Amino acid sequence: MADSDNSTTLSSVTHGGGGERAARESARFDEAEPALGLLRDWVRAHHVSRVLCRLQQRLETRVLGAACPASKDARVGYSIAYQAEVEAATAALKIQDTLPNTPAHSLLGVVAKLEIVVGADREIDDPTDFPWPHIESILRDLKEIAGSVPLERPDRSIVQSDCRRYQAMAADLIGPGSRAADLPLDQEADVGVHTE
Questions:
Q1: Domains of the chain: which residue ranges?
Q2: pTM
């Protein structure tokens, strides 16, 4: 007996700039399979968090090597970068928290939900401990049956925009006189966009 989920054709989920038409298609697609929209949003937030983490690590190195007069400015930049990373990671965690309440309407939706679970755990626990190899095995089996989730990495401009938004939030939290624009985002985000 054939599974009707296998015959369903789903359009590609992207973050690329396609204007109003792409936004309408994305919204319609998210209604048809909310778990895929959730995965797309999680991938975006998780990717931005990793880019900001690399920025924070580079600034931490600069703080440690900075001379005393330059140290204060370096510490403010580092503090903003650190807080921006926290804000982005929190956004990814909030998306993960909605996972149990997000229905999957197809096998691809189930794949999307498992992609989030497996992707989130890779950085938390030892992926060789039970039950992670088993869950990854189930995910591979589902992909063989249903196919992989049609998902692309977020566009560089979207990643940079998200990074700037989190940096502005962080600068507001750090205090007056702190400016997110002072951080070398363009250089750092460009590097991060190409790294898996």
A1: 19-105+155-193
A2: 0.71
